[in-house]
Design brief:
Two copies of one chain form a homodimer.
Chain A: H1 11-29, E1 34-35, H2 37-44, H3 48-56, E2 68-69, H4 70-81, E3 87-92, H5 96-103, H6 105-109, E4 112-119, E5 128-129, E6 132-136, H7 140-146, E7 151-154, H8 161-170, E8 175-178, E9 191-194, H9 197-213
């Protein structure tokens, strides 16, 4: 991996890099070879100086008067983010959201391969979803170690999220993406991300309320 | 609504307020009446001064030597966020994720009521999911106006997200939560939130890669 110029990359930068990769990928599919920083910024919904600042963490990109080479930039960001490889993932909690993720083709396309699914509900154990058999959660620690899994996805109800996290850590997982609407406690070397779409609903509700009170709507 | 002390509340604050509301709700269910700022901070995964700063946007909270009154604080945040009412929501794109959201009970519990679901796939139109009949997307603008809908949720494939957004805006929607992994263009008075779980997968992958290169794993 490329040596990073700074140790600490802001979370917001990582998030924007993910958007850049996505948009660069679409461009590559469309056969676009070079893009101006203005155009890339516009497509990603940020300003050009933000892109330059974000990319500066990873090295020198862009050619004055030309812009960015689409393929090179995409590869460089992918490498920086650790996306130039595949990641084995397990999922805990086979409810509506868990099923949707198991059937989602974008995860695999982005290098995240769900290799096992777990649930503690006896009615779900043994069921096959998207080619995977649901296993009893008690088997999780051994399975994840055997399959060299690094990332765990939690889609349990909120009250079971911590237990799921404990199983995952027992299984040697290094990072967790928690879709359950509750906080979990982990040691510092475990990377945890929360995906809580209700927060985004809240934000929109808040912004509409604000816009209405300002007479903008 | 309470008068806000500042016009512009940082996004990160809104996001944390959503966490505070969630945790306060759990406490209220457990019969907890008062909580210290340290304990609340710990449960929410932030530090106490952050909570004080976030709440300062909305008024004076907390009693020295006592902490926060759980019910009062929860109500005040709910009111500030515009959550002391229900919001009519429509969903566009009845794929795996759309189905999961239609069946998700948390949305309604939080005041977001999905009143209609749309898809352009003739095989899906007429299907009933969670008590709602899937309608043809061309009917969306009239339906949303008739039902006084303010928020639209997009769960289409990425290439159809902009079209879905156009239909929603034609229907007079004021805010959009976009789950499709592509940017959409809207006028400034439309509030747009992106829910892209792939970004969170990216962040975890990046952090694991970083931790490994630092020898922490």
């Amino acid at each position: 991996m490329q040596q990073l110029k700074f140790e600490r990359i802001p979370r917001a930068t990582i998030s924007r890099l993910a958007v850049y990769v996505q948009e660069l990928e679409v461009m590559e599919q469309q056969g676009i070879k070079v893009i101006s920083s203005e155009k890339l910024a516009q497509l990603c919904g940020v300003n050009p100086s933000q892109i330059r600042k974000d990319l500066a963490y990873f090295g020198e990109f862009g050619v004055r008067g030309v812009g960015y080479y689409v393929h090179e930039l995409r590869e460089a960001i992918r490498q920086s983010l650790g996306l130039d490889r595949t990641w084995n993932v397990v999922l805990v909690g086979v409810g509506n959201l868990g099923r949707a993720l198991l059937r989602h083709n974008l995860l695999r396309k982005r290098g995240f391969v769900i290799v096992a699914a777990f649930d503690c509900d006896p009615f779900k154990i043994g069921e096959e979803i998207a080619g995977l058999e649901v296993n009893c959660t008690s088997k999780l620690p051994k399975s994840t170690r055997d399959m060299n899994v690094e990332i765990g996805v939690i889609t349990t109800p909120p009250e079971r999220a911590q237990r799921a996290a404990n199983y995952l850590m027992e299984g040697g997982i290094k990072g967790i993406v928690n879709f359950a609407p509750s906080r979990i406690t982990t040691p510092e070397n475990i990377s945890v991300e929360y995906v809580d779409f209700i927060h985004h609903m809240f934000s929109v509700a808040f912004n509409i309320t604000q816009n209405q009170s300002k007479g903008l709507l």
